[in-house]
Write a structure and sequence with these properties.
Length: about 325
């Protein structure tokens, strides 16, 4: 008989079988885990795909609604555009008809009530410069009045032809009323040969107006220079660029000159003062007008005079002034 150790052989066989069984069990366990994870992943993927599908359906529905809304919006916009064009045509027709049929003589606005009558007794100081300052102050505080210091200046040429334009009052005191302009302008030419001028202020929201008559003289060069350089820089350059009242070939001509000046003086250089300066109106008469009901307006005029007064028609004021009431 052979000496082969069958017991050892059997033990090895059993051990190998056990090892194979353990590896197989482990492999089965891993496969089972993979299957479970795959199932979970698949479930999550399916769930996500289902969610995305629902989102796509909702998006599609919103797009359909948006398209419907866009279509409706386009119809509304088209309707509004046509409606606006019709209104525009109607407005133009109304304007044309109004221009052809308006009765200018019937145009009126309502003035102050009788309780607001402008009486001499209401003037605290019988001095027109003081009263003008109070009225100007009220006009300045009235928001509807954009430029309370705007005044219409009337001059007369050497040939006797009058002309007027708006300028801005820059000071008012016992000396008179000061404004500034180009010394080569038409109004300057007029005032050179005829210094008699008139100015008018009109403050519609207050139903008030002031008329001033007097003569002009140039203020000093130093005063003019001081004021010129106190103006905004753009206004200084504009005054230098414009040969006021002279013929020019085009708007671009002025723009080119303005740009050349800007390049020459730079951002901080001193802008040379042109032939430009101030005038002082020395008043000889100042009339205060206030609109009243039924066109019975109030007019009180101050005049420089040393005449005898009777306090019936003419009254003695202050600082060499007399005052009187004029019929409206």
């Amino acid at each position: 008989m052979s000496n082969y150790d069958w017991d050892a052989h059997n033990r090895r066989t059993v051990l190998e079988g056990r090892q194979i069984l353990e590896r197989t069990s482990a492999s089965i366990a891993r496969s089972n885990q993979i299957a479970i994870e795959s199932e979970n992943t698949g479930t999550e993927i399916l769930s996500e795909l289902d969610t995305q599908r629902e989102a796509l359906i909702r998006t599609s529905e919103r797009l359909d609604n948006a398209n419907d809304g866009l279509f409706e919006s386009r119809k509304i916009l088209s309707f509004l555009n046509n409606f606006y064009l019709q209104l525009l045509m109607l407005k133009q027709f109304q304007i044309i008809r109004r221009m052809s049929s308006v009765d200018i003589a019937s145009l009126r606005i309502k003035y102050k009530e009788k309780r607001d009558i402008f009486r001499e007794e209401s003037i605290d100081k019988k001095d027109p410069i003081d009263l003008f300052g109070k009225w100007l102050n009220e006009a300045t505080k009235t928001e509807e009045i954009l430029e309370p210091n705007a005044m219409c200046l009337a001059t007369v040429s050497k040939d006797g032809f009058p002309s007027n334009r708006y300028v801005l009052l820059k000071s008012a005191d016992q000396r008179g009323f000061t404004f500034f302009t180009n010394y080569a302008s038409r109004k300057a030419d007029d005032m050179e040969v005829n210094p008699n001028v008139a100015v008018a202020f009109y403050w519609l929201p207050l139903r008030r107006s002031v008329r001033i008559e007097g003569s002009v003289t140039k203020i000093s060069h130093e005063e003019s220079k001081s004021y010129f350089h106190s103006r905004p820089r753009a206004s200084q350059i504009g005054a230098l660029a414009s040969p006021q009242s002279q013929l020019i070939p085009s708007r671009e001509h002025i723009d080119i000159i303005e740009e050349e000046i800007k390049q020459k003086v730079g951002d901080s250089g001193v802008v040379p003062m042109p032939n430009w300066g101030g005038y002082l109106i020395t008043p000889r008469a100042i009339e205060f007008w206030q609109g009243q009901t039924n066109r019975l307006h109030d007019r009180i005029r101050f005049r420089k005079s040393d005449e005898e007064v009777n306090d019936k028609l003419v009254h003695r004021g202050e600082n060499g002034w007399v005052y009187e009431r004029l019929a409206p």
